[in-house]
Amino acid sequence: MVKDNATPENLAKATTEEIKRINPLIPMKAKVTKIIEETPDVKTFYISKEENGQMVVPFHTAPGQLAMLSLPGVGEAMFSATDAPDHLQLSIKKVGTLTDELHEIVPGQTVGIRGPYGNGFPMDQIKGKNVLFIAGGIGLAPVRTAVRYCVDHRDDFAKLHLVYGSRSPADLVFQYDLFETWPAVRDFQVSVTVDRGDDNWKGNVGFVPAFLEELKPNPDNTVCIICGPPIMIKFTLGILDKLGFTAENVITTLEMRMKCGIGKCGRCNIGSCYICLDGPVFTLAEMKKMPNEY
Amino acid sequence: MNSLIKEMQALAQELLASGEVKGVFGWTKGSRWYLTPPLFIQKAEDAIKLHYDEFAINNLTSLLLDYRNSDDKIAIFVKGCDSRGILRLIQDKQVNPEKVLVIGLPCPGMVDKEAVKDQRHVHDLPLLRKCQECRYPNPVLADRTLGDVQVTKEPGVPIGITAERAIQKGVGSKGKERYQEVKEIEALSADEKYAFWQKQHEKCLRCYACRNICPACNCRECIFESDKKGWVNKAATTTDNAFFGITRAMHVAGRCVDCGECERVCPAGIPIMKINRKIMQDIDELFGTYDAGTDLEEAGPLNHFKLDDPEEFL
Amino acid sequence: MKAFPKAKLQEVLKTLASKGTLYVPALVDETHRYYPYRADIQVSLEQNSAISPKEIFFPSTEKIYNFTAYGIDGDYEEILPDRTACVLFGVRSCDMQAILCMDDVFLTRGYIDEYYATRREGATIVALGCSKAGADCFCSSMGLNPVEHEGADAQLYDLGDYYGIQGRTEKGEKVVEALAVAGLLSESSAEVLVPEEFVLQVDSEGIAEKLQAMFEHSLWDQLWRKCINCGTCTYLCPTCHCFDISEKKKNQHCGVKIKCWDSCMFNEYAMMAGGHNPRPSKKEKVRQRFMHKLRYFPERYGKYQCTGCGRCIAKCPVNLEITDVINQVREAKVNG
Ligand SMILES: Cc1cc2nc3c(=O)[nH]c(=O)nc-3n(C[C@H](O)[C@H](O)[C@H](O)COP(=O)(O)OP(=O)(O)OC[C@H]3O[C@@H](n4cnc5c(N)ncnc54)[C@H](O)[C@@H]3O)c2cc1C
Ligand code: SF4
Ligand code: SF4
Ligand code: SF4
Ligand code: SF4
Ligand code: FES
């Protein structure tokens, strides 16, 4: 990476001489220190590495950046990473070979981790503005990295508003943040909805796009960060457009199959962009210029 | 030959114009005089692009797999050897016979483009070895025929307007010697055989051209597709390659229609047909002569059980 | 220019091989590719190798690290190739250009692929100018000069009975010097032989720009029809750099992570968990390949990712020729 100035622009321009020589494909040996069961199929893993007898963060990630996590002998996959002082948090949904195995492990497990990858959310450019976060399901994992940043730098941003939905109350991830931490933050509106309620659910029932339409957030001086399943994104974008959000002010993350994470192995391209390197964060305006192939 | 091409174009034109079929697989003249690659057309006016000559080597039948989930009827031109591929696809239930219209052609015998000496000027080329050894120069099945060819399930000599030329060039002249290469390998010691195949498998790139061109390799999901299942590794090492090569041979055992396409397309020049032919020879010896893909009604010795089957492997 | 007689090729190769690994195009078991030089090897400089020299820097399969897993413990141990010097002898202009494409991918944009870099840095490339075009060559149409390439460390020219040699870089000068010291070089004023007009020619000018408006073009609906989605074109291509990372378990507790060639023609290549594939059918796969070579790569790295070596044309089982695709793009009507 280019010295300490690893912005996407610098990375994109870096010549051979400017790139720090590490072997980017070798994972760093790390340990899972804590596991939180978020929902029946999502767990959050705290990952630290040992340095001089202390557990420290393997590397820091900016909001929206990624980490490649591997379990020796099982596989490797890319996840959004949430930065914390002495660990990284990866919230992982059980969907296949590696993620199934990850859901079986216990604290103390050795894992491999490499990163940070990707461009991250343009937090500097959002400074001073209202931020509308929209997330569905596990999509709150990447969004949460931006939310935490805004909360930590509360004075740098105007009003905050999160609209989040999941299939059922049991599928809501990060409930401790949703119902405790964030509502206590100044000027932070947290709106939660579920597709189907249960006996104890007192909140809104309905899909995210419809809920958003009811909430009618104001597009003035507002940037929207949205992540979730493709179908939710598709319908929500329609509503955002109707509400008057411009494509430049809607930011999302893209997902493609990844192997190397460093723009070499080829598979994560959309047009001439490699999502692992140039993404995963794009504005809707940028996405409109890319071939529709994701 | 020109009249045959005209007939092909006219038939394709008519089939597409009337809507009887939605597409036609044939060949077209390529960028050089010695190339006659596959062509798929969907519009009647494109029928004039069709061409046929002694370079129309490609067996087009595996391309039908792209339409196995489609309701469109597709027409396909076949030479004798190709027609066995259609049977394969029908017997394996990958192609609905109602949805294909097979047009049988007489075969002039295909020549070897590897022997081209002058790219700029047309010159004579030797007949392909597979054509010298050909035993089914006439379609074993067809809905329509052109050029006076006749459908026959039996091995035989070329029939139709190109027959004279084909026989003169030697089509089928070495039909009886087709196991000769197998015999040569059988004569080697076990160590020599091993060394021979190791050398061959070492070259394999694992490009899967052999599998993808093959009408018998028609599984919806090939076991080599999925490294997730851990059956085979992606690594192109000699051992993994051999595992691939031998597994593929066993998967097409008794179903391989002897078209030789796998060997033709292999960019590494691996003599894949030597293994396939060995298996054919063994089947002939164990169960009596059997040619896969020649008779729709016959399941084939490896596909059913008879009480008097030999039990050497048990 | 300095030159050595073709009759002394073996001595030249022996001299270079005495200094380190020397890769030469040779025929072994009927396969024409680059092999480490041995005195008994059948060196073949008549035409370009069937398998490209990319495998010297980017082998089809390589181990990247060992791992162990015992209960909750585990470890990783890097496996790096030796950082030894080597010489590639007889690299054609198309393959030299391809190495520059590979350099762009593996050595720039934020990260360096150490496996590639380690091999590449130690290599001296001695290019060989072509005096005869192969049957499927069209490098001249892709903006290259078949006779020489400025990216090489040293350049050989066909002078008839002699090979002329010129050093271009410090590394290349060392090669020339080694041959001079061995007393193999003399001065020659013979004309450099150049190939006659290529049989395959296309006009590639402006294709990358034109393709920017052609992602949705009906051309792609036809192109894929005969393709069998094999890996032949991409594996033989000297510029295709895609790889997969997977693992091979030795036993329950240890194994090795491997990096091996992959191809955008394969179905698994872009398949995601849950079965979503952004390029589900042959149409999207074929489009990806040509778009990458002719538009995306130029957009990213400023050069075509096709150097006109013709290998994909020679070996494609169905003759899906990139030259024909370029022509079709040129002729295509684009609305608006
Ligand atoms: C930029 C990015 C951010 C992501 N962030 C998160 C997150 O924060 N939390 C989370 O739970 N999941 C996230 N994912 C998805 C996660 O990578 C997949 O769920 C995971 O790869 C599934 O692996 P598996 O082995 O369990 O599934 P399998 O289906 O067994 O996977 C087989 C192979 O496919 C690849 N693969 C499968 N699905 C995907 C996918 N969606 N994207 C890329 N590669 C895939 C895997 O790497 C693996 O090699 C993210 C993906 C990307 C690309
Ligand atoms: S075509 Fe040849 S190189 Fe390719 S997988 Fe088959 S045997 Fe291997
Ligand atoms: S273009 Fe040819 S070589 Fe490439 S995948 Fe298609 S059939 Fe195979
Ligand atoms: S695309 Fe084909 S012609 Fe172009 S460099 Fe690759 S193999 Fe050679
Ligand atoms: S995406 Fe396809 S065409 Fe591009 S480098 Fe990879 S294999 Fe080659
Ligand atoms: S994951 Fe390899 S290029 Fe993006």
Automatic annotation (TrEMBL), chain A:
The source's superkingdom equals: Bacteria
Alphabetized InterPro entries for the sequence: Cyt_c3_hydrogenase_gsu (IPR012165), Dihydroorotate_DH_Fe-S-bd (IPR019480), FAD-bd_FR_type (IPR017927), FNR_nucleotide-bd (IPR039261), OxRdtase_FAD/NAD-bd (IPR001433), PyrK_electron_transfer (IPR050353), Riboflavin_synthase-like_b-brl (IPR017938)
Give me the residues that bind [2Fe-2S] cluster, please: 260, 265, 268, 276
Keywords associated with the record: 2Fe-2S, Iron, Iron-sulfur, Metal-binding
Q: Where is the FAD-binding FR-type domain?
A: 25-123
According to its UniProt entry, the protein's GO biological process terms are: pyrimidine nucleotide biosynthetic process
- Swiss-Prot/TrEMBL cofactor(s): [2Fe-2S] cluster
Give this protein's Gene Ontology molecular function annotations: 2 iron, 2 sulfur cluster binding; flavin adenine dinucleotide binding; metal ion binding; oxidoreductase activity
Q: Is Hydrolase among the key words of this record?
A: no
A Pfam family per the record: NAD_binding_1
Co-factor binding details:
Binds 1 [2Fe-2S] cluster per subunit.
PANTHER family found in the cross-reference section: ANAEROBIC SULFITE REDUCTASE SUBUNIT B (PTHR43513:SF1), DIHYDROOROTATE DEHYDROGENASE B (NAD(+)), ELECTRON TRANSFER SUBUNIT (PTHR43513)
Name of the featured protein: Hydrogenase
- Organism, per UniProt? Heliorestis acidaminivorans
Automatic annotation (TrEMBL), chain B:
Task: Show the SUPFAM superfamilies listed in the entry.
Answer: alpha-helical ferredoxin
A GO MF label:
iron-sulfur cluster binding
Transmembrane listed as a keyword:
no
Which UniProt key words apply to this protein?
A: Iron, Iron-sulfur, Metal-binding
Recorded hits in Pfam families, A to Z, give: Fer4_8 (PF13183)
Q: Where is the 4Fe-4S ferredoxin-type domain?
A: 195-225, 247-276
Name the chain's protein: 4Fe-4S ferredoxin
Automatic annotation (TrEMBL), chain C:
Q: Does the keyword Glycosyltransferase apply?
A: no
Q: Which PROSITE patterns match?
A: 4FE4S_FER_1, 4FE4S_FER_2
* Keyword match Nucleus: no
Q: Which UniProt keywords apply?
A: Iron, Iron-sulfur, Metal-binding
Where in the numbering of this chain does the 4Fe-4S ferredoxin-type domain appear?
216-248, 297-325
Residues that span the membrane, as ranges? none
- Source domain of life is Bacteria
Q: Name one GO molecular function term.
A: metal ion binding
From the Swiss-Prot or TrEMBL record, give the protein name: 4Fe-4S ferredoxin
This protein's species is: Heliorestis acidaminivorans
Q: What is the lineage of its organism?
A: Bacteria, Bacillati, Bacillota, Clostridia, Eubacteriales
